[in-house]
Amino acid sequence: MTTDVIQIQGIDFVTAPSPGPIRAGLCFRVGMADEFYGNHGICHLIEHLAFDGMLDPANQMVHANGMTTDIHTSFYIEGTQAEVVDFLNRITANLRELPLHRLDKEKQVLKTEQTRRGGPVAEARNTRHGLQDFGLSGVAELGLNRVGAEEISAWAAKYFTADNVVGFLTTAEAPEGLDLRLPPGTRQLPPAPSLSPAVDPLPRAYAFDTNAVVFESLVPTRGALGMLVRLARARFTVELREVDAISYSISVDTSMVGADTARLTCLADTEPRNGAAVVQSLVDQLVSLGQGHISAEEMERARRALIAETEEGDYAKQLLGDRAIGRLLGTPEETLARYRRRVEAVTVDDVAALARTVRESAFWITPVNDLRWVGLPPAKFLLPVVEGHRFQAINADEAIIVSDKGVTHYRGQAHWTVPYDQCVGVLAYPDGARQVVGVSGVSIGIEPTLYDGLTPALVTALVDPQVNADHMIPMPARREDAIPTAPPPPPQAAIGQPSYAGGLQAAAGAPTNDALGYTNAPVSTFRPGHSTAPSGSTVGYAWGHPQAAMYPNQPGMVQPRPAKRIAARILWVVLAVVFSLCAAFMLLVFLGSLSDTSPEIAEIRPILIGAAVMTGIPAILFIRAATRR
Question: Are residues 305 and 349 in the same domain?
Fold first, then answer.
């Protein structure tokens, strides 16, 4: 695995000469994790602009593509020498001078492309990290609405430079005719992954309407990682598919997030009704691996599989892009022989220690509403209420509080808050509506049409000055029928029901739901195509009108138990204890009578058995009633 490095016009290229078509590429150390919510999508946009002129049928590259990930933006091709030279030259020429005349068209293409995003893996990332750095990959690229030519050009000048790129090539020497001139710059280090306040500390789980169970952890890249992936994949597949038959496709993969850190992702598809069983099985196997319950046969099988990968004929060629990215990140290189020695040296204790790290730092996305019974508390989205101007909803049990510290939305006794110091963006609509988005994913909509005394001008005056300009994201105008309207007054209003008191009101001392004993998740979850959601976004929101409310049994929100249900459960517990004790007493008396052979005692035994049965059956029914969710 020794990497040969050559320089072509000041750019490092890792090479692995091999026969057949030439494979080549350029990997820049910038990606979605370098962006923020207000410019999210800028790397992807530059990637598209770099392909200007290559979609013409006369010039189209069949085996060429681009990729924007968390930590790198790459361009690659496989073809003849002439095709490789032409492709690399066109990419670098477009990066030197971005074809900004294509800006609006490429933005539209990307807005169409992002409707395909989402799903449990994306939800796991943007909930674990928040709507920042490594959590942006699963969020709609709303920054495309805000960034302009000047900001895009400055971004390219900082990141798409000769000192922030590593190339790869399957030839020993540079092909003739290359022109890879790029401006000088600085090698950019990858950002450190953040942790959303909603999931700190880990491990935690978040209920999501999905047909899969996902967990992700950040782990060291070296040591026992390869062995753990092999062992976990085999264990999970056997238990979930062959033994329990509750999952069909189980994957365990890793991806780089830094020079010495990787993300381990496990996804197991399942029916939602089997979600709890899938989680239980995965947790059990992680515990087993963490306790070192691994046979010598399992270890040897995984070891041989890892080493066999390195013996394939085109192994070096297949990993060439990864080796370029490793060099870009500053990952220490090693020879093939040293890698094999490391694999041979991995012990059961090494695997067990890493499995414990995975379990302790995992974040889970599941279709299960509550997983505290397996040691996975829910994500916590509750923040204190802000004090400021209170506006009552028209004909609805809702209110919104706007202050210079943030925004709070009430619905009944529940509330959600986005402080401005945790605000990652504000979606600004031409009709005056604002949507304040918090780092944890909670998003509060401020609709002037729904609150008494609230006007578009007042919303603008109260919200916009509190937010940085690069956090204000202009949104397209909504159709008139897409702007929410207040519901009509209830029938009781016609017989003298007092109207709501609206306008500016002090909200100090407003009631909170701290004492209700449940976790406040976002009111709902954005879905692609939702009438009030940015396309492709998976951000939770608390939009201020009844049509967008989460219904009581929506996955993702732990509901408070009504007082009557709690009282009934206490009654079932008391009755279960009483009848269980009676049944146990009758059974003990019966067992004690077996040593007495007198005819009188023999006549009593059937009565004792009947009494034990008559009290035992109700005891079982009461226990089931007391433990039912």
Answer: yes
Phi and psi (nearest 5°) for 167?
Answer: -105, 170
The pLDDT, as a whole number, for residue 541 is 39
Domain boundary among 490, 522, 548: 548
CB 125 within 8 A of CB 537: no
> Is the alpha carbon torsion for 42, 44, 50, 55 positive or negative?
negative
Considering only CA atoms, give the Rg of the chain.
30
207 near 368, Cβ under 8 Å?
yes
Verify that 359 and 393 share a domain, yes or no.
no
Nearest to 484 by CA among 394, 574, 351, 418: 394
Instruction: Write the CB contacts of 305 (distance below 8 Å, at least 6 apart in sequence).
Output: 230
- 236 part of a folded domain: yes
Is the Cβ–Cβ distance between 72 and 328 less than 8 Å? yes
Is 181 among the domain residues?
no
Residue 385's pLDDT is 93
3-state secondary structure of 75: strand
The structure tokens listed for 596 are: 């007495």
The 3-class secondary structure across 529-581, one letter per residue, is CCCCCCCCCCCEEECCCHHHCCCCCCCCCCCCCCHHHHHHHHHHHHHHHHHHH
Which tokens in the block code for residue 422? 């945790």
The torsion angles phi and psi of 326, rounded to 5 degrees, stand at -60, -45
Same domain for 64 and 39: yes
Tokens 């090693």 locate to 334
User: CA dist 137 to 114, 123, 384, Å?
Assistant: 11, 9, 29
- Asked if 319 and 222 sit in the same domain, the reply is yes
Q: How is residue 87 written in tokens? A: 């492709």
What local confidence, expressed as pLDDT, does residue 557 receive? 34
Residue 239 is classified by DSSP as I
CB of 155 closer than 8 Å to CB of 46? yes
**Could you tell me if 243 and 316 lie in one domain?**
yes
Question: Domain check: are 407 and 342 in the same one?
Answer: no
Write the CATH number for 49.
3.30.830.10
Structure tokens given for 453: 């005394």
Q: Are residues 154 and 18 in the same domain?
A: yes
Q: Which residue, 294, 320, 216, is CA-closest to 262?
A: 216
The answer to whether 131 and 38 have CB atoms below 8 angstroms apart is no
| Domain span including residue 275 | 204-374
Supply 133's token pair.
């750095």
Question: Is 35 among the domain residues?
Answer: yes
DSSP secondary-structure letter at 406? E
pLDDT at 596: 76
Residue finishing a domain among 122, 149, 169: 169
CA distance 597 to 600: 9
Scan for tokens 């909509």, then name that residue.
445
- Predicted local confidence at residue 530, as pLDDT: 30
pLDDT along the chain (629 residues), means of 10: 79 90 96 97 97 71 86 95 95 97 94 76 95 93 95 97 96 93 95 95 95 96 91 97 96 93 96 97 97 96 90 71 91 81 94 97 96 95 92 94 96 92 96 96 95 95 95 95 89 46 37 32 33 34 32 33 61 84 84 78 80 83 72
